[in-house]
Amino acid sequence: MSQNPAHQAFARSDRSPIGVWWWTMDRWLLGAVAVLLVLGVLMSFAASPAAAARMNLGDPFHFALRQCVFAAAGAAILLGASLLDDRGVRRTAFVVYLVAILIMAALPFIGYSAKGATRWIDLGGFSLQPSEFMKPALIVLVAWMFAEAQKGQGVPGVTIAFVLYGISVALLLIQPDVGQTILITMAFGAAFWMAGVPISWVMGLGVSAIAGLASTYFLFPHVASRVDRFMNPEAADTHQVDRAAEAIAAGGLLGRGPGEGVMKRHVPDLHTDFIYSVAAEEYGLIFSLALITLFGFLVVRGLYRALKLSDPFQQVAAAGLFVLVGEQALINIAVNLNLIPTKGMTLPFISYGGSSMLAICLTLGLALALTRRRPGAYAQG
Q1: 69 contact partners, CB below 8 Å, separation of at least 6
Q2: What is the mean predicted confidence (pLDDT) over 350-363?
Q3: 324-338 pLDDT, tens per residue?
Q4: What is the C-alpha to C-alpha distance for residues 345 and 74, in angstroms, rounded to an integer?
Q5: DSSP secondary structure code for residue 235 in this structure
Q6: Is the pTM of this model over 0.85?
Q7: DSSP letter for each residue of 251-262
Q8: What letters, b where the CB count within 10 A reaches 16 and e where it falls short, cover 40-63?
């Protein structure tokens, strides 16, 4: 009987870093991530020609080729991060958060603006969005602080966690980036709740978050515009979501076929925010549902593994990271289906973008590192 080639390459007695990594890794989670990486590259080839034509770029596969490079670099980051131990995860998060926050603070002076927001810096042809990397680092750090607070050794962990969150939100709103603010608030709230704090605190945070979200309608004109278009589409320009809906409807059950999409040519930001509609047109409803199921499997299995961990830091950090990925996927797909106002948020692994790809690979690399089966890591089994 033939054996799995990976099992032949890594015997259980193999104590090399890669051998230990292979036998302690949740290979179902790793497989789901690998499939999403491949699908991201596949979808970039579907969206790139139409996107390049809209932007008058000479090479129809400009975005697809760049996405291949981003995916390869992301895979390396994911592998490297998943090899870390707990201390390495915390140190990496601290360094990434510090660097990201410093760059975010400098964006008003060194960043460039696009679509009314200053979120990026230009690094020789590569646009870096530091807030993408700040998100997973923040979740790991606040989980660390919540865990320290539980030890009862005088560390003001909860206070520090709220300070880190407050700094992040303030810098995001300066850009402004309300979508990312909502995302990290939800992930922070989930980590806060999973850390076992009193329910009255969680409710207080929820009320504050709802009040803050409502205030963005009055503080930021672009937020008011998007909400107004969503609530009253007959009286506003809904070109984006209308074209996306037409592309999704055109795909039917099985889709038009790879590269055969027609309506996608009229979808703005088809290679980034609205790539789900491209997938639906070319590969159909069954593929779209399979993609949602894949994200659901990744998040549910990740949470299942995280909640069985015995260490409070590992538990909250891993669960928070999987929640972060699930929330982002949910928001992007909901926007494509016109279930919520547009947010300008990428679909993890699938949308084109260097910062998005590298940051999501870092996120899941850290999550995979925390959920590895080490001695004493799990309360059961």
Answers
A1: none
A2: 94
A3: 999 999 999 999 998
A4: 19
A5: G
A6: yes
A7: HTTT-S-TT--S
A8: bbbbbbbbbbbbbeeeeeeeeebb
pLDDT tens column, 93-128? 999 999 999 999 999 998 887 777 888 898 877 888
| Residue keyed to tokens 């889709």 | 255
3's tokens: 């054996």
Return d(Cα 122, Cα 119) in angstroms, integer. Answer: 10
Exposure string over 221-252, b if 16+ CB within 10 A, otherwise e: eebeebeebbeeeeeeebebbebbbbbbebbe
Q: Which of 178, 130, 138 minimizes the C-alpha distance to 340?
A: 178
State residue 199 phi and psi, 5-degree precision. Answer: -60, -30
Q: Note the Cα 105 to chain centre separation in Å.
A: 22
- Per the CB < 8 A criterion, the answer to whether 299 and 323 are in contact is yes
Name, in order, each residue with C-beta under 8 angstroms of 46's C-beta and a sequence gap of 6 or more: 258, 259, 261, 264, 278, 279, 282
3-state secondary structure of 354: helix
Task: Assign 3-state DSSP to the chain and report helix, strand, coil percentages, each to 5.
Answer: 70, 5, 25
Integer CA distances (angstroms), 43 to 39, 144, 173, 273, in order = 6, 36, 31, 13
Q: Which carries the bigger pLDDT value, residue 177 or residue 360?
A: 360
> Are 136 and 305 in contact, with CB atoms under 8 Å apart?
no
Distance of alpha carbon 117 from alpha carbon 175, whole angstroms: 6
176 upstream amide cis, omega within 30 of 0: yes
Sign of CA dihedral 287, 290, 295, 296: positive
Residues whose CB falls within 8 Å of the CB of residue 267, separated by 6 or more in sequence, listed in order:
50, 240, 243, 244, 247, 274, 277, 278
Largest CA distance in the chain: 67
Could you give the CA distance from residue 279 to residue 287 in angstroms, rounded to a whole number? 8
Distance in angstroms (rounded) separating the CA atoms of residues 116 and 215: 19
Say whether 121 sits in a helix, a strand or coil: strand
Q: How far lies 267's CA from each of 83, 264, 335, 336, in Å?
A: 40, 5, 13, 11
At 177-214, the pLDDT tens digits run: 888 999 999 999 888 888 877 777 778 878 888 888 88
